[in-house]
Sequence to fold (104 residues):
Amino acid sequence: MVADPGGQTRAMSTANVAVLQRRGASGITGGAIVSSTGPIAGFSNVFSTEPAPAATWATLLDAAATCFPETTAWVGYESGADLAATERAGFHRMGPLRIWLRSA
Fold:
């Protein structure tokens, strides 16, 4: 378990995966799962109950950086209002998502 000095975020982590939560006065206000491959880590299952989700993103990013200090690039997939929140938190669009499927 990792917590920031202000007690705002907490993380349960292994060598490659962290489950993050952001807490406010009313309890859990946001969270995410972060998977790391070393220099690149990906956010998934991100949520925020706050009206300013960019602040949640910034807090979660700080917590993820504590869990995975070797990471040099953070990635994820968002759309709509969620994408706008990530952009306000300093992320930028790289391109469209492509999904590949091969039946067994």
The chain has one domain: 2-88.
